Protein 1
Amino acid sequence: MDKQTIVANLRRDLHNVMEMRNQVTHSPLAGARLALREFQSARLAATHADLLAQPQTAAAARFFLDDLYGINDFTRRDADLERVVPMMERVLPAVALKYIAEAIELDCQSEAFDCAMAALLGARFGLEDYARAYLRVKTRAEREAQIGHIESVGRSLCELVHMPLMAASMKAMALPAKLARLSELHHFLEAGFSAFRQMKNPEEFVTTIVQRERTILENLYAGKAQPFCY
């Protein structure tokens, strides 16, 4: 995919996710959305507890849980990103742009799913309520596509860490980013890159996460009593 297409997709998804976040933040759904995100963040941390506990994979697992999905406020990061898209198109390689675009696409899709589920669940719910809402709000194909986006982000990061001189470029960007008030965006870029660079086999890490999430999807659609066991 060429840079122009990647950037067009990035702009579209960034606009959509910023709109959704702004609307839900100023709506009665805000509390329900936060409760759902807290539930899912705790679930992800439990599912991948072994990856969080291992020194080799801890940083990458934390990046997936906190920076790709979590209860953190991404408003500043999104505003930073919107401001510098033209500059990034000029200076970043296509693979780095693809990583950012795919991460924002995943964020956009997750936000849409969460808003739909929050509208059904409210702020107080249990596992059975969650399982019913999970099946009602989106099709199986859409759920599978969401996991596919998780895999795409991971594979893009794997590709990025193998690029020559990328580590030096990330380090060199730190001070200019701080001076330009782009610290949140630089953290997002650098955190994923550094975490994946620490691992001997980042591809195996991505495969592990994706396989577990696909098993959980299968469990939910099969109506298993303990769907989060893989």
Note: The chain has one domain: 3-222.
Protein 2
Amino acid sequence: MINQGTPVMARTTGAYRWLKWVTPNQLTFGRILAVPVLLGLIYWRSPWSNYVALALFFLACLTDYWDGNLARARDEVSQMGKMLDPIADKMLISASLIMLVALGIAGPVPTILILMREFAVSGLRQVAALEGVAIAAVRGAKWKTIFQMLATGALLLNHDPLGLPLVAFGQALLWFATLWTLVTGYSYFADYFRHGRVQGPG
């Protein structure tokens, strides 16, 4: 049992003891390397490949949670990790959605809107970087990623197991995620132009 006086850093590190042989950046690279395998499973389009794709996608999504917490627990936060983490998320979700669009499962319009928002915010970050300013995540940005992941996960089981309308649910959730994505994207630009720059950690 952990005493209440145990430092938070020590408790957090202990919780990730099973990841002691892995660095946060390796988890991020693992998420990136999972993308081509995931695309192959999606393209195969069979019940068993759908289940495996969902399992791989879920594991990759968990690494998004693990790598950040692990980096902070070990005090291994790096500029490379800050750069690669959001890129890995975008690669995982965007590539999956594009493949699902190609198969006629995901809607092309919400997917395009999501990609447009991601490109726009990335461009804004580059402009801010040239000004020597790091743009902090706006409120709700993490939920944007979670909603996108949930929608993509539901669409991966596109054979509707047990008669559950997961495709319809995933498509509706994708539109909701798109709306949330656009709102948070607007917040970045509104804050930037309102204050001239957005201060805070990236």
Note: The radius of gyration is 18 Å.
Protein 3
Amino acid sequence: MRYFQVMAKYESFTRASEELRITQPALSKSMAKLENELGAQLFERNGNRTVLSWVGKQFLHHCNQALLCVNNGLREIQDNCGLESGSVRISVSENIFIKHVIFDFLSDFPNASLSCQLQSTEQMQEALEYGIIDFAVSSAPVPGEDIIWQTLYNDALTVLMSVKHPLAKKQKIYLEELAHERFVLGNLGYGMNSYINELCEKAGFKPDIRYEGYDPDLAGMLIHIDKSVILTPRSITAGVKAAKIHSPGTIIIPIADEIPKEVIGIAAKQGHFQSKASLEFYERIKAFFSSQI
């Protein structure tokens, strides 16, 4: 059934066998055996492609439910050992900072284990449907049957700068006031840099970018060299500060322009078993974002 689930996911013997780490002939033999046992054709040939048949789509739904039920049973039995040695499996959007929550959780429960993956919304939906993860922390609602989405936080864009910067004493800053500043872009997630360029252009200028890269530590250091500025979501600066890796001598100032806030939420599959460790981590994630409201 697991082989069939992966084969249905890719509709490709090559890709499915690679994920399952078995040979294509072995996978083909397994699918033929399954079809023989069911007395039905699960896959059809469409030119050079292998596609799920109508019967295969019906069986996939029941297969997913059965494997999820088995997985829930296994985790429930394993959870008898308690929170201290339980496991947590989550995925997050790449522009969400929860490193400090993970660090504190694993420090408090040294025998627990945690798996955290960076995923797109579509990947999160699939992982929740298949029971691969316990929940997802996402910057967009995760759709899907029986997937429950809860909004945690409305994230606003802020300006991070040195306390010695000439604008550091302002309560709020309009983007047009940054027209002659040098920008540092780092740790903002896929597509965020182009979004910042777009915002600046709407404010009437093209940003003078001193550094651009996925390196928050370096970005934080650079703003002290020539009084550069960073545009960053408030949740990231709050997370960095909570993790106590906040660069000393910096200040966060809200942006006065009307910019749509990005919603951060948490998604879980209804009916999916949650270990004690997973529930504890779930509550810690909610508590962090609630504290920023």
Note: The mean pLDDT is 86.
Protein 4
Amino acid sequence: MNLGTLDLNLLVALESLLEEASVSRAADRVALSQPAMSHALKRLRILLGDPLLVRVGPQMQRTARGEALRYPVKDVLSRVQDLLVTEKFDAGRSTRTFQLFVSDYASDLLLPSLRKQLQRQAPNISIRVQHGGAVRLDPFELARAVDLAITCVPNSFNGCYQQRLFTDRDACALRRGNSIAGQISCETEFLKVKHVAVVGREFTEDPVDTWLHEEGHRRNIALTVPHYLQALHVVAQSDLIAVIPERLIRAYSAVLDLDLLPVPLDVGTFDEYLLHPATKHSDPGCLWLRGVLLQVAKSMGPLCPQRIRNVPNRRSRKRHSHKQTNFETASLPSQRKNSSS
């Protein structure tokens, strides 16, 4: 038999005929006319070399071959349907592990809330966050290696869909009750007080300082650390201050007993984006996880209006970081990029 000439509709008719043992009932079952079903039975008899159904008195009965084919045909059609129908994703029962590429900043900000959501909706799902190892992969290999990524340079990865996740800006973090709080609203005093700088492993200076140097300023750096959370812990136990993304300060302010003040310079805002490879666009599991991440980001709410006092002749300009995550390329230096810190 040449399978290339086989009409799958004949298998549907065969399953119905063998199940009903009646041409009229089989026709009704699959919404065909009785003449069309009779014609299908005739073709099947020729194709299989067997009558399949024979009349015995007022009824029709399956032949031995017809009886033998009844359940295998049903099984084949079920397998074909499973093959062609879109896979469903049951988050409550899934044990899938999702691969995410996210900077330390976005991880520290989003993963605690994401984990709470997953505990409620999908307790058996695992999340694996990738950082440094992904830099060794080219964009095509990276697309196969990750399900989702979070970056603030959305056009740096070809072959990805993108959507805005949230907006953030830099702010000053300081210990609650720190006596210098009243000083740093002034640009001059802000630059004079002692700072904690955050320099990721692949950079030589904090992007805050890169931007300040471009503006002709230099701040007083007393300590340099590689991660934002380290800076927040130091600030919580000293009189140093740190310039950190505002949402991260707010997320840990209660735990670390921190205060937040605006930077007395117009540092602007930056956007974080949720990216996913085109190969995962219709993946039901990835589609579900994207929805959860968007809910987590939405729950943070919008940024509050920020007032900066006593700053004459402020320059209106966005802070442009020269940092880049492992998910980005160096070909977009004019845009703010996530740090690995």
Note: The chain has three domains: 3-84, 97-167+272-299, 169-267.
